[in-house]
Amino acid sequence: MSGSHDGHDGHDAHDAHGGTAAAVDLPPGVVIAPGDPSQTWVEKLYLPEIVKGLGNTMRRLFQKSFTIDYDGTDRENPEKYHQPRNGYRGEHYLKKDDNGHVKCVACFMCAAACPAECIHIEATPTPPEWADRERYPKRFEIDLLRCIYCGMCEEACPVDAIALSTTYNIVSDSREAKVYRRDKLLELGEQLGLSQSHHHYRPDNVPGHVPEKKTGH
Length: 217
Ligand code: SF4
Ligand code: SF4
Hints:
Elements: E1 4-5, E2 8-9, H1 41-45, H2 47-61, E3 92-94, H3 109-113, E4 119-125, E5 135-143, H4 152-156, E6 162-164, E7 179-181, H5 182-192
Antiparallel strand pairs: 1-2, 3-6, 4-5, 5-7
One iron/sulfur cluster binds next to helix 3.
């Protein structure tokens, strides 16, 4: 059957049995696919399928969750903190030397290597009692909103003073909070127990490997 509707060309809509239903006004070339002729009338009601789906949902409600109850605080608890594979590049930290001073010698190599130009350093002469180097960073900032976590700063550092941790919970509620300054970067190293670690870009980059916490050289 063909027909027209309000003066437009009309198209026949076919029901599941190949018959025709009331004509609807479809754009040219658009046809309504016939239903699956193998469906029973119970299946066509859809209600049994909806009840089955709800039953499946209810069963899952009482099963153990596959997801981590993430709050980012308890790093030792695998139920609370996903440990990324070693080699994951997360938040940066700065290391200290044996004397507890910032290890950075303000050489600007990391800033020069950074493709995002998000490291800003101001150097200043060291106090006379710091006999091992001439300068240290009076100001050391990383704008993590611009950082692309490429790890080039870690690669470039000649004294292994900066590294990227596996910390990934790096959200914040302000842009200012994502500018990490020297003392915060040192504090992060302390918190991770990696302040004096001697790894350089985690050579033991094995999936599932948990980073070893090292203290001292
Ligand atoms: S990880 Fe890459 S983009 Fe981020 S501060 Fe280091 S060098 Fe720059
Ligand atoms: S972190 Fe390393 S590369 Fe960057 S300024 Fe300090 S010593 Fe140089």
